[in-house]
Amino acid sequence: MSPTTPWWRSAVIYQVYIRSFADGNGDGVGDIAGIRSRLPYLKSLGVDALWINPWYKSPMADHGYDVADYREIDPLFGTVAEAEQLIEEAHQHGIRIIPDIVPNHTSDQHVWFQAALAAGPGSPERERYVFRPGRGADGTEPPNDWVSCFGGPAWTRLPDGEWYLHLFAPEQPDLNWEHPEVKAEFESVLRFWFSRGVDGFRIDVAHGLIKHPELPDLPSRREAEDGQPQQHADHPHWDRDEVHDIFRAWRKVADEFPGDRSFVAEAWTDTPERLAAYVRADGLHTAFNFDFLMTDWDPKDLRAVIDDTLAMLDGVGAPATWVMSNHDVVRHPSRYGRKAAKKWLANEPYRPAGPANLELGTRRARAAALLMLALPGGAYVYQGEELGLPEVEDLPASALQDPIWERSGHTERGRDGCRVPIPWSGQTAPYGFSPDNASATPWLPQPADWAGRSVEAQTGDETSMLELYRSALRLRREHPALGDGTLTWLDAPAGVLAFSREPGFICVVNLSAEAYQLPDRTSILLSSEPVEDGRLAPDQAAWLAV
Asked: How far apart are CA 458 and CA 542, in angstroms?
């Protein structure tokens, strides 16, 4: 990578789900103090930046994604002064900081929404949100048939008879992004944090800000003869073209500040072409590649999504951003250890088919890590991924806290299984997540068998997932072929993915059922498992020097 290439084109960014990363004050919930205490670990891991899930003042109806004040840190996590100290200390370690920003909705406790409730129907205060009268003779039916992502209707009726829109929980009312005060407020919030040194933002629900002005009913999800969902067809609240005007304005705000400030979009789209629209030259810098995340461990499907992604993004001059797990999806060792019950579609939950084979899933996860980190562009690592943590699928019902659990009538367990606090050290819970004198247990219970998965247990063990990630990230930094750039596919048997990157690098991933003889005149830089007699076993990957 050229020294003049912006950092975000090749960055490996580590996702910190703040509640579950490290508890500095012993209350059982992760916080800014915990992140600061673990900066040396993150530097030794070799990541370039931290994406931190929402730390703003919040009633925590959705664990921080219901923001009451975008310029304050919630006391559960710390203070603005502590955030500024974290930013400074991270920069001293060579690590950038990218907080979440949540523009689709606020908390129902936000001063704007409280003012809207008090002002009543037809007031200017209500114009900042999406209020509508109900349908039916007496207005008792919702304005349309939109459904909350957390289950149930996307509308809640107030005692005065009006309904307000919430695509997520009722405590998360959607903003009206056609309103000039909403646009101005968020540009002000961006400047507030940019001026305090943050290096960018991850944009939550970037595809959802604009709604069809007439709020029509949802179109039915029609499928083509091959069973694939139809392509984008003017959805009334997802991925509308007008959203890009907002992000062009945000790009101008970022460009006011030095140091290559950047944005990454959480944008669920039907096609790579629709995703590419978010990262045009005058728009956002990068966007999560959910197509890659949602692809099964299948060579044809993986190659297709890699090719489609690179082709579409190259057309707009943007880098790819690869990701396998995050705080909203089942962790990938548990996904790779079984088949999905049906094709996984955007904005729908993952449906597993049977129990996970974690030995198989972990072997594939090791190989997938080398595949992801060898691809052109940047990558995201979700906390605990480098430890090989699986999904915790046996949390007791009494411990579940995701609002999806209640909103679905206890039919969907939600996302708590990928959010369990990560293990750092020791033989029993809390495994170093909280200090020894902690006053509370972790906010979600940790499995009894996680001692061997801790940072302490894996450090120095060359066979561990942690040391595999450390080695891969070190080589990625050192090797001139890796990061931003291009790849060339190489001839290989069915089920084997092999590509080269210049100068002098080859990645081979064996997804077939047979061992694969590695090419002559190459040497192994790194492999997901030991390679015997130059033969790459099934579900293994290797980086080769030419």
From this structure: 21
Task: Count the neighbouring beta carbons within 10 Å of the beta carbon of residue 409.
Answer: 9
Based on the residue annotation, tell me whether 204 is a catalytic residue of this protein.
yes
pLDDT of residue 230: 42
Identify the pLDDT of residue 326: 96
Residue 141's pLDDT is 97
Strand partners, 381: 14
| Spatial separation of the C-alpha atoms in residues 114 and 124, rounded to whole Å | 13
Q: What SS3 state is found at 180?
A: helix
Q: Are strands 200-203 and 523-527 parallel, antiparallel or unpaired?
A: unpaired
Spot the catalytic one: 223, 241, 256, 307.
256
Residue given tokens 């297709």 in the structure block: 304
What ranges in 31-131 are assigned the alpha helix state H?
Answer: 32-37, 39-45, 80-92, 111-119
> Tokens in use for 350?
């993952």
> Count of CB atoms within 10 A of residue 1's CB?
15
Which sign, positive or negative, has the C-alpha torsion 439, 442, 16, 59? negative
Choosing from 204, 266, 270, 386, the catalytic residue is 204
Which residue in 267, 272, 372, 365 sits closest to 322, CA to CA? 372
Q: Is 214 a catalytic residue?
A: no
Q: Whose CA is closest to 146, among 87, 82, 215? A: 215
Query: Using CA atoms, how far apart are residues 475 and 469, in angstroms rounded to an integer?
Result: 10
Place of tokens 């703040």: 18
Q: Residue 114 burial (CB < 10 Å; 0-12/13-18/19+)?
A: middle
Cβ neighbours of residue 463 closer than 8 Å, sequence gap 6 or more: none
Total length of the chain: 546
SS3 content of the chain, % helix, strand, coil (to 5): 30, 15, 55
CB contact at 8 A, 54 and 464? no
Spatial separation of the C-alpha atoms in residues 249 and 255, rounded to whole Å: 10
Per-residue pLDDT at 2: 61
Residue numbers in the chain where pLDDT is lower than 70: 1-3, 221-233, 345-347
